Amino acid sequence: MKLFTRKDNPAQKKTYAYMGYDESEMRTTVLEFEYSYGVEEYDLGTAFAQIAIGTNDVYKTSAAAQQAGAKIVREAGPLPGLDTKIVSCLDPDGWKTVFVDNRDFEKELEPAAYSCRVTAMPNLKPLKG
């Protein structure tokens, strides 16, 4: 995988990495990895938080998810400080899925939105299992 972007967020004590298998974030599936400061080890079963999927309308997606029986755990709307609209729900087995507005996410991917770009993340530790 190629590291597209790394964002440090000291206020939340987290580092985010965005990775994928293409040359451009705009042409591939992008995975977001999150490292919490001070966490020395992640175990299988506790390291996975959620999967995010792009959608053209988080409000319609929220309604469809509810109609299909999903439990909404974060109502559709913008995230504070980012203005990216999302909706978060749990499937019947309790796994979280976040639906992210495609246009808002594309704005987040613009190079001006990031303070730095790097090619390695030496502070991240691999999962054990």
From TrEMBL:
Gene3D superfamilies: 2,3-Dihydroxybiphenyl 1,2-Dioxygenase, domain 1
Domain VOC: from-to ranges: 1-102
Domain of life: Eukaryota
InterPro entries: Glyas_Bleomycin-R_OHBP_Dase (IPR029068), Glyas_Fos-R_dOase_dom (IPR004360), VOC_core (IPR037523)
Name this protein carries in UniProt: VOC domain-containing protein
Taxonomic source organism: Sphagnum troendelagicum
Taxonomic path: Eukaryota, Viridiplantae, Streptophyta, Embryophyta, Bryophyta
